[in-house]
Each structure stands twice: as C-alpha cells, then as structure tokens.
Specification:
- By secondary structure, this protein is α/β, with parallel strands linked by helices.
- It has a domain of 220 residues: SGNH hydrolase (Rossmann fold, 3-Layer(aba) Sandwich), CATH 3.40.50.
- The chain is built from 15 helices and eleven strands.
- The strands form two sheets. Strands 1, 2, 3, 4, 5, 6, 10 and 11 form an eight-stranded mixed sheet that branches. The chain has a three-stranded antiparallel sheet with strand order 8-7-9.
- The N and C termini lie far apart (72 Å).
Length: 364
C-alpha cells in the first residue's frame, strides 16, 4: 500500500515539475547510487570511511566512540599510526572492560581499540575454543552454523590470531593484540553437545534461548533432529578445565601476547537462602569456588593476571544482582578500577596502581 502511494506521489511531482527538472535528475542520481550500494554491499571502503568519519565527529569532544562490542579512543588523532589493541573473549562479565575506558583515556598514546568478540558465553568453552585450531571438515562446520544459527565466526580461531579489526571500522586498520582478556564462566556453567557425524562440539545456547517457545513447540521436527544428531557431553570437568585452559594460555603467550588477564567468578549466588547442603548434590557455588581456586593456581604457574571479580563484588555488595554473572551498573565501576590497574601493571597503559588489592598478577 505504502509503495503504491509513494509511486503515485512521485508521479504527481514529475508531472508538475516536468521530466527534465532538477528533482527528476536528483531522483535518478539517488536511484543509481542506491542500486550501486545494493550491488557493492554495505561494507565497502567508502562505507567504512564514512562510518568512521561520522563516529569520530560525534565522539570528537571526548576523543572516544563505541558500540555494543567495541570502544575506540585516541590521544591526538585517529590517523596516529600507534595502536593499542585490547581483545576480549568470554561471557556477560566482559563488557566491564568498556567501563574502564574513561579511566584509561588519558593514558593512551595513539589509538586504542577495545573489542569483545561477539557470541558471548556460548562460544567460549575452552574445548570449543581449542577445536577452532583443528577443523577437519569446514563443510560440516558451515552446515552447523547455518542449521543452529551460530555466529558466523563460531568455528574460526579468532582468539589465536595476533591481530583483530573492529567490524564496520576496517578503515581504522588492524590492531595488534596488546592484551587479551578472558573469563572462565563458560567452562563452569555451559553444557556442550557433540555432532555425531563430524565430531564437532557446539553450545547451541543462542539457538534455543533466542527462539519463542511457541516457535519451538511448533517445530518439534527441529528438536528431534537435534536429539538424533547430537550427544550431550556435559559440562567441563575441573581436570579438563586445567588442561584446556592452560593450553589456551600457553598458545596465547607464545603466539599472540604475554599480557593476559582472566576474570574469575562470583562464588555466592545473590538471593540464595540455602542454609543446609545435606540434600544438595554438587551445589553451583562449590563448583565456582573450585574453578576459582584452580584458576589461581594456574596463574601462579603460567604467570598471567587474575581479575578477582569474586572479591570485588563481595566488597561492593551483591544484594541487588539478578544472579552471579550479571552485574549491576554500580558494580562496573570497581571492576573498571581493577581492570585499569591490571592493564597498568602490564605496562600497556600508564595508570599507576589504583587497585584495592595488591595481588592480581600472581607469581610463584
């Protein structure tokens, strides 16, 4: 209906102004440009430069702009060749690094790109990350990405690459990974499934969680397909965590950057009123504590930093949190202070020591 009305309106304007009017030429030029854009796509060099110019203009006052997965800030000019790249991979806790941006602003030299890889916790189990280094069947991987609506980069080893670009802002160029930030939440809480035919592991969390229940119930064929083609491999054991995560840390230290920080987990469950565990088998709080302790011991052996989220949030107070993994706005500030201090100790930013605790980069 709207298309017909628009066509009639344009026809009336053409009749009124004549076929060789400035309006007609402008309309023809716009139509030609839109057609060319559709053919070329929306991520051409021109599109990227235009997008960057618009973002930089809006963020000129604070020398900073950002979106849901990234923040870019600069000291003097975006043309400065000096680059600092902060890359993060993990769960819902990692956006806390963006809260650190204002604290780091005055300490950067050149341009700093902070980027959290999309996909969240469902892409971040240690065994799923490691399998990206050895995909035997790209065709099977592509098939699962399409069938399960997984992120397009699900089976790509982006974590282990030494550089990254910020999607949509390729005009900024590449950023060396000056530091990598990880979290252990996926290993603690997520369940994975193995595709029977290809052997590939997946965590289809996004596929199930993003569907309306009415849609799922109306498409039981899809549910049955999943049941027939996948086997439940359960959660990561503490032994598997120790082996897998240590391998990830070593690979990053050897091939990407020595500067690695890992966020541990809040151990208590906000709002939980349990006072006796006689009938509770393997409580989640005990599992989180076990993994936190294993992470601490690993950090001593492999020399990487741990951001002690558990301590920080307990000091802040967790009464208003929804659960252990989703923080309040108020909690982001002490977390940002800690992250800034950790990065400062790495020598990436000149932040001094602002932490409420002197121990993060644990040593033997």
């Amino acid at each position: 209906m709207m298309r017909k009305l628009k066509s009639r309106f344009l026809g009336s304007v053409r009749k009124l102004l004549g076929e060789d009017s400035g309006f007609e030429r402008l309309l023809h030029d716009l139509t030609r440009r839109m057609s060319a854009r559709r053919k070329a796509g929306t991520d051409t060099v021109v599109e990227q430069k235009t997008r960057l110019w618009v973002a930089a203009t809006k963020g000129k006052k604070n020398r900073r702009f950002g979106g849901g997965q990234y923040t870019v800030m600069w000291s003097d000019s975006l043309r400065d060749p000096r680059r600092t790249g902060l890359y993060a991979k993990g769960g819902c806790d990692l956006p806390a690094i963006f809260a650190a941006a204002p604290r780091l602003q005055s300490s950067i030299e050149g341009v700093c790109g902070m980027y959290v890889e999309p996909g969240g916790v469902s892409t971040s189990r240690s065994d799923i990350l490691l399998q990206t280094l050895d995909i035997d069947s790209p065709k099977a991987a592509a098939y699962l990405v399409e069938e399960l609506a997984l992120p397009t980069q699900y089976f790509e080893p982006n974590l282990f690459q030494p550089r990254f670009t910020i999607p949509g802002y390729g005009a900024l160029g590449e950023f060396e990974k000056s530091a990598v930030v990880l979290s252990i939440g996926a290993d603690v809480v997520r369940t994975a499934y193995r595709h029977r035919e290809s052997g590939l592991l997946v965590d289809p969390g996004g596929w199930w969680l993003n569907q309306d229940m009415a849609y799922v119930l109306a498409n039981l064929e899809k549910v049955n397909w999943f049941k027939e083609n996948f086997e439940d491999v359960g959660k990561v054991t503490i032994g598997e965590f120790g082996e897998n995560f240590a391998k990830i840390i070593r690979l990053l230290q050897e091939d990407v950057t020595p500067n690695i920080a890992v966020l541990n987990l809040l151990e208590v469950e906000p709002g939980d009123s349990t006072h006796t565990y006689q009938l509770v088998k393997s409580p989640a709080m005990e599992r989180r504590r076990t993994f936190n302790l294993a992470l601490m011991e690993m950090s001593r052996e492999l020399q990487f930093s741990v951001v002690d989220v558990d301590r920080i949030l307990k000091e802040q107070g967790v009464e208003s949190q929804v659960d252990f993994a989703h923080y309040t706005h108020e909690a982001f500030q002490p977390l940002a202070r800690e992250i800034s201090a950790v990065l400062g100790e790495m020598g990436i930013f000149r932040t001094g020591s602002e932490s409420s605790s002197p121990v993060r980069a644990t040593t033997g």
